[in-house]
Specification:
single chain; mainly beta; five-stranded mixed β-sheet; 35 strands; 1% helix; globular
Length: 430
């Protein structure tokens, strides 16, 4: 959710990369009972909400204070946080590094080198990982661009198990390598692997053994969510050409709908679940859908390519409206907009805002755009109300940020294979 896709046109692929980010409304429980944690892509509940954070009344004119920074290599994988420990997954050289940092100081706690087994070969100029780390019950789950799936100890980074799922399941890696972030549902690790009846595979958390596999489709760069649909937990995935709902215990297909476009296109944004409906969207002429899940059946309410069409951005659902950036980064046609979820009607559009990732914190919207500017916005269905905007990162920023205990953690993406991860004081810390 979280990965940057660069320059895909209808007739050809132009070199570049996509972050997907990521990013959704889910009912997935946090890794531990701490509302300040950000243990996976798009937050504890994968909906972009930092529920227990309290923003500072105002920031300095040049943006929130930077409290530390740390060098990183290639990759569009954003950070994950549990307690005072932040995990970042990147590629500074030939192999990956997984690093644990102190959230207050940025100091290194541990670092491990992991094999990458990915050399690109397509339009992707960044060979680092795209998927965001998942922290769950003292374990860290990482998914590399070449299909490497790792389980590490959160305490010291020791490898508990490892496997290459693209090799095992003979799955194609996609335009930019593998990049869908894993999810834990009902104590099973679910992953969009892609392949013949292996579109989604469930793994045992302790051993990495396969528990079940389901559906036939290639993988996307969208990360899944969990939703309570018809009274039961449902794992919702956007694959290469479909959106599907699966029973987490067995992999049974509960519903499916076509979604995607053949040719040099991808699905990048995460699904959003709200008010017994699912929202999905993509660029490349695919557009957006608002689908009812009442009674466990999927029914299309509206669909078009005008309301919302994002390169990789997942909007925030708030009080019946969806807020976020629409457009494509490679076309430089991004805007920030509000649409009514039930009808798809566009309430307003603010042009000239680059695509990026939107989060909801303390009743306000925070947008980190792909050019490194942070925007503080009051949600309103009648007009665009920006409180403040400041450039906080010196370079492109396509990775999804994290928020925990009053701090925003965000990274620039590699220029000459070098980037920077920084911590900013945006709210009250305990």
């Amino acid at each position: 959710m979280h990965w940057y896709l660069r320059s895909l046109v209808h007739s050809s692929i132009v070199p570049g990369s996509l972050i997907v980010l990521l990013t959704v409304l889910s009912l997935s429980p946090p890794s531990r009972s701490c509302g300040q944690d950000w243990p996976q892509i798009n937050g504890a509940t994968r909906n972009g909400f930092a529920a227990q954070e309290k923003l500072l009344t105002e920031w300095p004119a040049d943006g929130p204070q930077k409290i530390w920074s740390h060098p990183v290599g290639q990759g569009f994988s954003g950070p994950a946080v549990v307690g005072k420990q932040l995990i970042v997954f990147h590629r500074p050289a030939a192999n990956y590094w997984a690093e644990a940092l102190d959230t207050e100081t940025g100091k290194l706690i541990w670092k491990v080198e992991l094999p990458s087994r990915y050399d690109g070969g397509g339009p992707d100029q960044d060979n680092g990982p795209k998927a965001v780390p998942l922290i769950h019950r003292g374990r860290v789950y990482l998914f590399g661009t070449g299909g490497n799936l790792f389980c590490l100890s959160l305490e010291d980074g020791e490898t508990i198990w490892e496997k290459n799922v693209l090799v095992i399941y003979k799955s194609p890696s996609g335009y930019f390598g593998a990049g869908s972030s894993p999810i834990v549902v009902n104590e099973r690790l679910l992953l969009n692997v892609g392949g013949d009846q292996t579109a989604v595979v469930a793994f045992d958390l302790e051993t990495g053994d396969e528990l079940w596999k389901s559906f036939d489709d290639r993988a996307s760069y969208s990360s899944p969510i969990e939703a309570q649909i018809n009274g039961q937990p449902t794992a919702v995935f956007v694959t290469r050409m479909h959106m599907i709902g699966l029973e987490p215990a067995t992999g049974k297909l509960l519903f499916e709908t076509p979604f995607g476009q053949r040719g040099p296109t991808v699905n990048g944004a995460m699904p959003v679940f709200a008010a017994d409906h699912l929202f999905i969207n993509s660029a490349y002429g695919v557009g957006a859908r608002w689908l009812s899940t009442t009674g466990g059946k999927l029914e299309r309410v509206w669909a078009n390519d005008e309301s919302f069409s994002s390169h990789y951005s997942t909007p925030i659902f708030l009080d019946g409206y969806l807020y976020g950036t629409s457009g494509r980064e490679d076309f430089a046609d991004g805007d920030f907009r509000c649409i009514e979820a039930a009808t798809g009607q566009v309430q307003w559009i603010e042009d000239g805002i680059p695509v990026g990732h939107t989060l909801c914190v303390d009743g306000q919207l925070l947008l980190l755009d792909c050019q490194g500017s942070l925007h503080r916005i009051t949600p309103s269905a009648t007009e665009f109300k920006r409180i403040q905007s400041a450039k906080i990162l010196d370079g492109p920023s396509r990775s999804m940020p994290a928020i925990s205990n009053g701090r925003l953690f965000a990274r620039t993406n590699a220029s000459n294979k070098k980037g920077e991860l920084s911590g900013f004081q945006i709210g009250e810390s305990k």
